[in-house]
Design a protein that fits this description.
The protein is α/β, with parallel strands linked by helices and about 290 residues long. The protein has 2 domains: about 150 residues, Rossmann fold, CATH 3.40.50; about 100 residues, N-(1-d-carboxylethyl)-l-norvaline Dehydrogenase, domain 2. Helix 5 links the parallel strand 5 and strand 6. The longest helix has 28 residues. It binds ligand FVH. Ligand FVH binds next to helix 1 and helix 4.
Length: about 290
Amino acid sequence: MDDNSDIPVTVLGLGLMGQALAGAFLKAGHPVTVWNRTASKADPLVAAGARPAPTAGDALRSGPLAIICLTDYPAVREVLDASEPDGTTLVNLTSGSSAQAREAARWAERRGARYLDGAIMAVPPAIGTAEAVILHSGPRRDFEEHESTLGALGTITHLGEDPGLASLYDVAGLAMMWSILNAWLQGTALLGTAGVDAATYAPFAQQIAGVVAGWLPGYAEQIDRGSYPAEVSALETDARAMAHLVEESETAGVDAALPKLFKAMADRAIAAGHGAEQYPVLIDEFRNPATPE
Ligand code: FVH
């Protein structure tokens, strides 16, 4: 029971995630009002003590804090346009782009509501535990006012005043996740052609991922300084190893598109004179996309 469990909380949207969110607030002892387009989805939560609201507008009027978690931002606007959220602090945990988050914040301000955006970096079963990382962006005062209540959902963080930050961190985190998984699949497919099964390679891949993760703080310093002295390895050395990866993949009949992308970006940086610098110098290739041929 958190120390302000008498604060009422409204949850709009009772899909897989919304149900978990409402359940966590109930478990923390808050009075919870719920609304969902398909009303029957509220039934298990009502049985657990939640109050069902007949409309979203009625739900929003039931307290100072409303969590909304629908499929996408157009759905959020559809629901909120039909209600008067003035005075309520809206915490939008729907996935979307930073542009959609900033537009939603402007829309809420025009309607007299306070708006915090958020990105859930967890699956429904983790909600209510420390493993559930939830990133917030928007006015710090709104975050701080409701921090204790929102903390019932998991480990929450305020990233900054720009409402778009949570979405940007979300997609940046997904970029890390998919890049690591795709790189692991590339290696697994390659080793599979030599009879090495995925379970055998996985611990080696985990060890590599951990080593590379350790490099990030030092590489980040180089990027923020704009200076990339080759303390560990020069980009030209990396590019030669990338050529080996392309060659091995093509010889083994494994898709070489990802290795070729690595090599193409390194070759562009080398052609621009950065071959003797360290790997993070490639940030400039990401910041200045190559013009499509
Ligand atoms: N589930 C997960 O693991 C991920 C984890 C990371 C964050 N996502 C995002 O959370 C949003 C909701 O995801 P969800 O898994 O709860 O999605 P569904 O189970 O499909 O529920 C969708 C709810 O949205 C309602 N809804 C959709 N369109 C409308 C609309 N036009 N008007 C009103 N409500 C709408 C839907 O209502 P109903 O179909 O039950 O009547 C559900 O309540 C999402 O952004 C994920 O990316 C989850």
